[in-house]
Specification:
heterodimer, A: about 240 residues, alpha/beta, Rossmann fold, six-stranded mixed beta sheet, four-stranded antiparallel beta sheet, globular, B: about 400 residues, alpha+beta, six-stranded mixed beta barrel, two-stranded antiparallel ribbon, binds adenosine-5'-triphosphate, binds magnesium ion
């Protein structure tokens, strides 16, 4: 059983009375522990695909099965729990709570957790420290640069030890040094903890960190390939790849 | 506990959205503030009247008959020249009546050398002192002999005595009341100002006969105080007196009484009635203002939710349930409303104290407005917060994040 399974997913948005089909009949499986990057031109539907995989909205057509559960049949309450426990989001537009300190933004998902680990604050501080924001913990998003905000969103996605990380352009606003740090974090999570990582990016260099590269164009999967250039240093989990 | 976490988030929301919080509290502040003031004025007025009653010197066995139709102290026109000494004699003849003190009353200027003041001058019989049980600190009260001979003697209350004589001994001094000279023969014991500022010592007493011939130049009485043998006889005696007076005054069966009773119960009843009328008005005013306050809260919350869909979306993405969002916004609305309630109460209290201090209106501070403010603002927060809160919760994360 795949961790993520999309069966003939379509997503249509209505805008100004016109139906715009953003995703067209997409079928896709991702196994637990995989490291997938999604590339494609702007407007191809990458972020839309992420909202569906993250249970933030339902597809117009098709079936989405996450960890054995058909999302359409799951109650909103249960979906909230799934998002809270299983998924860590990194959004292209950051989506930080305005006016709230970095450390509290990072810890926000814990407000909605059933069990809050005792060392939550230390963990949040450690993560922020690790990504170079130790000195910015009490700053609010408005007081942080784009790159710093991006790093806060990454720290937030990690706080609940999710099974899946859905990251939309996580390095888009970072300089190469910080970008490399972030990618190292993802690589390590995938390698050591077996976290499934789904990475949306424009940057071929970044995409190369993944073992599998998915290309989306006009709402369709254009290609789904193994990454031949997969870095030697990376030794992934035993099984990987699509069936 | 999840609910406490949502509560904390709500507090933070209230603190973060200061502009909206301020606007929302405004309506409630006005509503609760006016409620507090109105209640304080109502209580103050009531206290003042009750205080007056206590100082009228009524025991449970006494009441007064006043000349002229109407109710209590309020004469509804008609003759005030209805009550006579013959009436008083007839009342005194009733077996249930212990004492009757006929009374004339006039506000007069009294003068001693260069000092002068205005005071209430009462013409009464010597029994007055027994009936009121009011001690004489210096000199004597006038006697039946003074009455018979229409003597120009006067007993001063402590207020006019101080005004005219200061620390000096007033006994046997001659003072002028209007154009007539009186000899001061006694000094009433000082009672002191009452809580509501009424001065029972601002009075002077002269024999009724002297009052009739020298001051009012008429024999009609202002009122008569009646004391019965025991309190249970009050009702019946009042009815008996009514028969006597109607007969004496030749009133046809259809005519209204040309006299009226003042009893402690009557005053109490009147106070209660006016308090009820006041309460009705109070309820109307505060309901309207609180309703307006509630609608203001609801609208601003709806607007604020439009501004904050993004925040809602973010929370939903990371695991907030619909109920978490509802709770957070409901708490926010209750907090804001309570905050308005607290501020409103404080402002209302301040105004009430100012009114009292500067003698604008009598007010009295009781615990009721606090309880009312608390209950009202919580209810308003809940009632007007629920719709915006649910609306916020119904958005899907995808929609909210757009
Ligand atoms: N809520 C919406 N209503 C209408 N159209 C939408 C909506 N969301 C997305 N779209 C459209 O769907 C298309 C795909 O959008 P999406 O954000 O998925 O692209 P993307 O691949 O992430 O692009 P980029 O690389 O620029 O982030 C775009 O043309 C966009 O205008
Ligand atoms: Mg995108």
């Amino acid at each position: 059983m795949s961790l993520i399974e999309l069966r003939s997913i379509s997503k249509t948005y209505k805008s100004a009375g016109l139906d715009v089909e953003v995703l067209k009949d997409i079928s896709l499986r991702i196994e637990e522990g995989e490291y997938v990057s999604i590339i494609g031109p702007s407007g191809a539907g990458k972020s839309t695909l992420m909202t569906i995989m993250g249970c933030l909205g339902l597809p117009t057509k098709g079936t989405y099965i996450l960890d054995g559960e058909e999302v359409e049949r799951v109650s909103d309450r249960e979906l909230s729990r799934i998002r809270n426990e299983k998924i860590g989001f990194v959004f292209q537009a950051f989506h930080l709570l305005p006016g709230v300190k970095a450390i509290d933004n990072v810890m926000m998902p814990l407000l909605y957790s059933r069990k809050v680990p005792k060392d939550a604050r230390q963990r949040a501080e450690a993560v922020l420290d690790k990504i170079g924001l130790g000195h910015r913990m009490t700053h609010t998003p408005g007081q942080l640069s784009g790159g710093e905000q991006q790093r806060v969103t990454i720290a937030r996605s990690l706080i609940n030890n999710p099974k899946i990380i859905l990251a939309d352009e996580p390095t888009g606003n970072l300089d190469s040094k910080n970008g490399v740090e972030i990618m190292k974090t993802f690589d390590r999570l995938n390698r050591e903890e077996g976290t499934t990582i789904i990475l949306i990016t424009h940057d071929r260099e970044v995409a190369r960190h993944a073992k599998r590269i998915l290309t989306i164009k006009d709402g369709e999967i254009e290609s789904d390939q193994w990454n031949e250039n997969f870095q030697k240093s990376q030794t992934g989990p035993a099984r990987s790849g699509a069936e | 506990m999840r609910i406490f976490r949502n509560l904390k988030q709500a507090l933070r929301g209230v603190a973060l959205n200061k502009g909206n919080t301020f606007l929302m509290t405004l309506g409630i502040i006005v509503g609760i503030g006016s409620l507090t003031v109105i209640v304080a004025i109502g209580e103050g007025t009531k206290a003042k009247v009750l205080d007056r009653i206590a100082n009228l010197g009524f025991g449970p066995d006494s009441f007064s008959v006043y000349a002229g139709s109407g109710r209590l102290f309020f004469r509804s026109g008609g003759r005030t020249t209805s009550l006579t000494l013959e009436d008083v004699d007839d009342i005194r003849a009733l077996p249930t009546v212990r004492l009757v003190i006929p009374r004339q009353r006039k506000r007069m200027r009294i003068i001693y050398k260069k000092e002068f003041t205005t005071t209430r001058v009462y013409g009464v019989t010597p029994e007055w002192q027994i009936a009121r049980n009011w001690d004489i600190t210096d000199g004597i009260f006038f006697s039946d002999r003074h009455m018979e001979r229409k003597r120009r003697v006067i007993v001063l209350g402590s207020t006019p005595a101080k005004k005219l004589f200061g620390d000096k001994d007033p006994i046997d001094k001659m003072i002028r009341v209007g154009n007539v000279f009186f000899r001061v023969i006694g000094l009433l014991e000082e009672k002191g100002l009452t809580e509501s500022g009424y001065d029972p010592d601002d009075r002077s007493l002269i024999p009724l006969t002297t009052s009739m011939s020298r001051l009012t130049h008429q024999t009609y009485l202002h009122s008569a105080k009646v004391m019965v043998m025991n309190p249970s006889l009050v009702e019946n005696t009042m009815e008996d007196i009514r028969q006597i007076l109607r007969e004496n005054h030749n009133l046809s069966p259809l005519a209204d009484d040309d006299f009226r009773y003042v009893t402690p119960e009557g005053i109490m009843q009147w106070v209660t009635e006016s308090a009820q009328a006041m309460n009705r008005m109070l309820i109307l005013i505060s309901t309207v203002s609180l309703l307006v306050g509630g609608i203001v809260i609801m609208n601003i919350l709806l607007v604020s939710i439009r501004e904050r869909v993004h925040e809602i979306g973010i929370r939903r993405c990371f695991g907030a349930r619909r109920s978490d969002i509802t709770q957070q916004f409901l708490f926010e609305s209750v907090f804001v409303s309570l905050l308005g309630g607290i501020l409103g109460t404080l402002i209302g209290l301040t105004l009430s104290i100012i009114f009292q201090r500067f003698d604008i209106l009598p007010t009295k501070i009781t615990w009721e407005p606090f309880a009312l403010a608390f209950v009202f603002s919580t209810v308003i927060g809940l009632v007007f917060g629920i719709q915006p809160a649910r609306k916020a919760a119904m958005l899907s994360p995808e929609e909210a994040l757009r």
